[in-house]
Amino acid sequence: MMCGWDAPGYRPPSRGCVLQPSTSKEVSAILRHCHDRRIAVVPQAGNTGLVGASIPVHDEVVLSVRKMDKHFKFDDHTGVLSCDAGHILEELENKLAKWNYMMPFDLGAKGSCLIGGNLATCAGGIRLLRYGSLHAHVLGLTVVCPDSKGSILELGSANTSNDCRKIPRIAKEKLGEILSSFEMMDRGTMGVLKAQSHEEARLMWRLRESATIALTMDGQGKRHDVSLPLDHFYRLTEEVQKRVGNVAKRVVTYGHMGDGNSHLNLTSTKEKAEELYQV
C-alpha cells in the first residue's frame, strides 16, 4: 500500500507509521495517543486526490480508513444510506443498484476512491448539476475529535430515517403542482436519454475516466485542481500554453463543467521535467 503517494504520483513516500483502524473506537484510541504525545496525524482515504492533501510530508502518522468498510445499512423506503468511511464508491454504487438506487455523485476515480475522502473534500463529479453538492446529501456523521479524550461525536438527527419517511407525504401535501412539474420534467429528460445509444454513452464515459491514466503514460506530469468561472474555464489552459511554450509536451484541461472544476495537466519529457517545474 503506497500511503506516501497520491493520484499524480510525484511525491516522495514517507518513512512514517501507517495505522489502519477498523472502528471508531480504534480511531479514538489513536488520536488520543497522538494528542497526548503531540504527534501529527494525516487522515487518508483512497489517495485519488490531485493536490497532495492526504499524504505526509515529514514523519506524521498516517491514519488510513481503508479497513473501515464493515458497516453498511440501507433503507430502501427512505433512500438513506449509513456506511463506514472506507467503502469504495463504485462498490456502494453496485450495492445500491440491487434496490434500483444509485449514489448522488460519480467520479472517474470511483473504482478506488473512498466515501470518507469524498465527504471530506465535498467531491463534485458528473452528477453535481442534477443532484447538487455531496454535502447537501449528508444527514449525519460520526466524528472522532483529535483531543485528549479522542471524543466520538454523533452529528445529525437520531431519528433521521423516521424523519425521511415523512418527506414523500409532506411533499405531496405541501408542494402539489410544483412536485408534479418536477416529475414531468424528469420523465421528459429520461425520454431524451433513452433515445441515445447506451454503447456510445458508455464509451464516452470510459474516455473521460481514462484521462488521468492516459496523461500518466504520456510523460512526466504536473497536475492541478482549480475552480474557475465557466466563462474562463478554458482560458487558463490557453494562458499556460503560452507561458510554458515547447517546454511542455502537452497542456490539457478536463474536469466538471457544472461546478467550474478544472483539472489542468501538463506533461513533459523526462529531460524537461525540472525545467517545466521551474516555469
From TrEMBL:
InterPro entries: FAD-bd_oxidored_4_C (IPR004113), FAD-bd_PCMH (IPR016166), FAD-bd_PCMH-like_sf (IPR036318), FAD-bd_PCMH_sub2 (IPR016169), FAD-linked_Oxase-like_C (IPR016164), FAD-oxidored/transferase_4 (IPR051264), Oxid_FAD_bind_N (IPR006094). It holds the Pfam family FAD_binding_4. Keywords: FAD, Flavoprotein, Oxidoreductase. Its EC number is 1.1.99.39. Its cofactor is FAD. One of its GO terms (molecular function) is FAD binding. One of its GO terms (cellular component) is mitochondrion. It catalyses: (R)-malate + A = oxaloacetate + AH2. Catalyzes the oxidation of D-2-hydroxyglutarate (D-2-HG) to alpha-ketoglutarate. Also catalyzes the oxidation of other D-2-hydroxyacids, such as D-malate (D-MAL) and D-lactate (D-LAC). Exhibits high activities towards D-2-HG and D-MAL but a very weak activity towards D-LAC. This is D-2-hydroxyglutarate dehydrogenase, mitochondrial. It comes from Mesorhabditis spiculigera.
